[in-house]
Amino acid sequence: MNDVFSNAERAEVLAQALPYIKRYNGKTVVIKYGGNAMVNENLKKQVMKDIVLSWLIGIKIVLVHGGGPEISELMDKLGKKPEFVDGLRVTDGETIDIVQMALSGKVNKSLVNLIEVSGGVSVGLSGVDARLIEAEPKDERLGLVGEITKVNTAVINDLLEKGYIPVVSTVGCDRHGNIYNINGDTAAAYIAGALGAERLIMMTDIAGILRDRDDPSTLIPEVTVAEAAELRKQGVISGGMIPKVECCIKAIEKGVKNVVIMDGRVPHSILMELLTDEGAGTMVTR
């Protein structure tokens, strides 16, 4: 390692990060992590280390995660076939139990554990804890898939104040005790909005919004909400990127200053986004 960077070069890198450290110190950043950005164990460890480093320099980090591949894997082991409507998992009573086992159990606690091993202090929550995410049925065809009606951030604020990194799995509940499967991107947008976060980082498995989906060099580094609507009309934003961008816009409408969609598989993408001029991915702004 010493052959690659001299001590002077390392010191220069740290000095260049100073304005960004100052900008984000004491600010809340919500990170949405999950799906295909989360399947590689080594990468997962590196992402958690980046989160801990961000936390150690004074950024209040809230990690919101999904875990679709883990849910499907557990369903497969239990002999239950996943079914989707418009990209959303049909969730019956048996499936919601599996969702809770996978998300609030295995995935949530593994992320908490990795943060702790990396030197952070973390607490795992689900959207059911302290009624963090209240919801109602989204569409009767989907069963127990929830539409968020309210986010109660008191428990997150308490944890942030005490210096913890909250790690939130995206299940919700209603007043009658029903548990709902909540889309991870939507949950992250609502939570970031309710917290008045400085930034929401959406970690996915693509570089951001591309003018040509087959050419990573056509990445659009920044778009406004109005420009995003125009890009959708032109067909540049299409397919699975449509709901992601809609979540970005929802977060901004709810008070988040800006949202970044970026490739969570790129090493140190969080640090590049928070601590450099160039950033990573596509930033969506008001």
Describe the structure.
The protein has 286 residues and is of the alpha/beta class. The protein has a single domain (24-285), classed as Acetylglutamate kinase-like (Carbamate kinase, 3-Layer(aba) Sandwich), CATH 3.40.1160.10. It is built from nine helices and 14 strands. The protein has helices at residues 7-24, 41-56, 68-77, 93-117, 154-161, 184-195, 225-233, 241-253, 269-275; strands spanning 28-33, 60-65, 84-85, 88-89, 122-126, 133-137, 146-151, 165-169, 171-173, 179-181, 199-204, 222-224, 258-263, 282-285. The longest helix is centred in the middle third of the chain and has 25 residues, at 93-117.
> By CATH's scheme, which homologous superfamily applies?
Acetylglutamate kinase-like
The oligomeric state is single chain
CATH architecture: 3-Layer(aba) Sandwich
The helix count comes to 9
Please state roughly what percent of the residues sit in beta strands, choosing from under 5%, 5-15%, 15-25%, 25-35%, 35-45% or over 45%: 15-25%
Order of helices and strands: HEHEHEEHEEEHEEEHEEHHEHE
Gyration radius, in Å = 19 Å
Number of strands: 14
Unreliable sequence segments: none
Task: Give the tags.
286 residues, Carbamate kinase, 8-stranded mixed beta sheet, two-stranded antiparallel sheet, 41% helix, globular
What are the SSEs and their pairings?
Blueprint (H helix, E strand, L loop, with lengths): L6 H18 L3 E6 L7 H16 L3 E6 L2 H10 L6 E2 L2 E2 L3 H25 L4 E5 L6 E5 L8 E6 L2 H8 L3 E5 L1 E3 L5 E3 L2 H12 L3 E6 L17 E3 H9 L7 H13 L4 E6 L5 H7 L6 E4 L1
Parallel strand pairs: 1-2, 1-11, 2-8, 5-8, 11-13, 12-14
Antiparallel strand pairs: 3-4, 6-7, 9-10, 13-14
